[in-house]
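Hey,
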Amino acid sequence: SNSSSNSFCNSVAVDRACPAGLDTCRTVHYMTGQSSNYSETVHYFTAGVAKMCSTRTDCSMQAGCRMWEGRRVCSTCCQQSYCNEGVPWGVEDVNMLRSTGSERTTGYGAFCYVIGAVMFAAFNNL
């Protein structure tokens, strides 16, 4: 479920519906920062991308941006078909999918870009 870039992730990802019970597409964008010599601005670059199916609750609880092990990590959720083509760079790109209590889950969720979870352990060593 991990890749070194969003375009590579999308090119090798399986384009399929999430299984029943996992009705939400979750995208996690891992970034490294580099400071400019001329300003205090930090520019972020993609270190890795993970895309997977998730429950709405789990995805919403992890949505947002935070610093983790020296990296900026942004996670977002969506439920429309093919909604996870892009990656979140900041809080303005994050969809929390907070429940209003009136939504119902029916059968299969959105079609998501998903790649195998085999690479996850290797990605954690970046």
